Amino acid sequence: MSKLTGKVALVTGGSRGIGAAIAKRLAADGATLAITYAKDASAASAVVKAIELGGGKAVAIQADATNVEAVKGAVEKVVATFGRLDVLVNNAGTAIPKKFEEATLEELDRVIDINVRGVFIATQAALKHMKSGGRIIMIGSCIGERNMTPGFVPYSATKGAVKMFTQGLSREVGSRGITVNNVQPGPIDTDMNPVAGDSAVLQKAATALNRYGHVDEVAALVAFVAGPESSYITGANLTVDGGTNA
């Protein structure tokens, strides 16, 4: 049996980048998957098809992370479809790569709404259905602890909030046998932060390994935290950042 056989996982923002890699990896480890997406139905469908081609089971649900009812509805749909929810990966996130002084209030609100409020909403909805052995996993950022990259001030602030949310929530739900952990990627080659991007040289230089990471490297850590071997790890902030914060 695979490590996650019989488990049901929901990955928010699972249609591309790190989220898609996490969904595929959890499915490969035996979990039944649900992913949410905001707009790109074709990208979400491609992730579902890739999982099904690998012999897994998956569904895609449209739910913008800022829409309270949509997020709650997505969680309810997962439980109604598969009968349970064991793993929630709060992956949906966004950034404004510009100086703080130049950011509009609308942009700041959106970063907070997706990166913090969206995490609160999804987690609260999921906890109503989780039983002992459940896993809440945040996708934070190494710059939620130490920000050396100009232009990511609001983003790093929201990821710092996610870090403290993880630590606090772990103590509230620990007695229920549910773990809460925060996986903090460093520079990862994605559409949002491409290896050829404007700040890539600075980010790469800040790593100990002198390279960007791959989405599969983040997914591997998430899969471990989602699995049975991590049962005594909770309230932890686990970096996969090539030594950026070393």
When the domains are counted, the total is 1
- Separation of the first and last Cα atoms: 37 Å
Q: What is the 3D shape?
A: globular
- Largest beta sheet, briefly? 7 strands, parallel
Mean pLDDT: 96
Helical amount among residues, as a percent range? Answer: 40-55%
Note the beta-strand portion: 5-15%
What would your notes on this structure say?
With 246 residues, this protein is an alpha/beta fold. It has one domain: NAD(P)-binding Rossmann-like Domain (Rossmann fold). The protein contains seven helices and seven strands. The protein has helices at 17-28, 41-53, 68-82, 105-127, 153-173, 200-206, 215-226; strands spanning 8-11, 32-37, 58-62, 87-90, 135-139, 179-185, 237-240. Helix 2 (41-53) links the parallel strand 2 (32-37) and strand 3. Helix 3 (68-82) runs parallel beside helix 4 and helix 4 (105-127) runs parallel beside helix 5. 47% of the residues are buried. The mean pLDDT is 96.
